[in-house]
Amino acid sequence: MLDILPHDGGIHEIRMARPPVNALDLTLVNALREAIEAAPANGARGIVLSGTQGMFSAGVDVPSLLQRDHAGVGEFWNAFFALCGAIAASPVPTVAAITGHSPAGGAVLALFADYRIMAHGVYKIGLNEVQVGMAVPEPIQFAMRRLVGTHRAERLLVAGAMVDAEQAHAIGLVDELAAVEQVVTRAVLWLGDMLKLPPRAMLATRAIARKDLVDVWGDTNGLLDPSFIDAFFSEETQAVMKALVARLKAR
């Protein structure tokens, strides 16, 4: 489910390995949070969060989520928020090595990293939640606005738009593009350059620069509006999601 791969200089790569598309179920979400939180204590000076070539993460495991009752859906989303908060508040720099397509929950995870490197070419990224019948909660919208600005975030989020890698780079949703087989290498090199800087000064400046994000996401207890869970069970959302699952099964 996860591969923990050491790189030179105290860089730890946390690679999602849940075939076929690294869909985020509760087990993977909790494993990711635990790995990110444990990494500094295990000697990590920087973290690379990666997926498999061609697919960073397809987002939330919708078939699994549809099997859960109200309490179970709440448990999943609170765990997902805790994972985002762990990335946001990590005491060491984190790079999202977006190794391929990254819709919905995969794109959300990348929002909280220090830096995002994406595979260029045919790959797409975006918060397409509206297209699958879900609203985007305000704390996630805040993280999106922080990267691309208020108006552009509004247009992308309301439309549930997916954009290709080149457009994502042009609007600031990702910071750098690389060939798919070089994404992790570039992530390690970027982190290596960061870690060559005087550490006290770098980390103190980083903490100031990310304070707005940590102020919102540093403690995710109660951050998720309960109405979001109620909306998941609405007739519209259930119908759209069940149609999505049916299309996936028909492939």
Automatic annotation (TrEMBL):
<dbReference type="Pfam" id="PF00378">
    <property type="entry name" value="ECH_1"/>
</dbReference>
<protein>
    <submittedName>
        <fullName>Enoyl-CoA hydratase/isomerase family protein</fullName>
    </submittedName>
</protein>
<dbReference type="InterPro" id="IPR018376">
    <property type="entry name" value="Enoyl-CoA_hyd/isom_CS"/>
</dbReference>
<dbReference type="InterPro" id="IPR001753">
    <property type="entry name" value="Enoyl-CoA_hydra/iso"/>
</dbReference>
<dbReference type="GO" id="GO:0016853">
    <property type="term" value="F:isomerase activity"/>
</dbReference>
<comment type="similarity">
    <text>Belongs to the enoyl-CoA hydratase/isomerase family.</text>
</comment>
<dbReference type="GO" id="GO:0006635">
    <property type="term" value="P:fatty acid beta-oxidation"/>
</dbReference>
<dbReference type="InterPro" id="IPR029045">
    <property type="entry name" value="ClpP/crotonase-like_dom_sf"/>
</dbReference>
<keyword id="KW-0413">Isomerase</keyword>
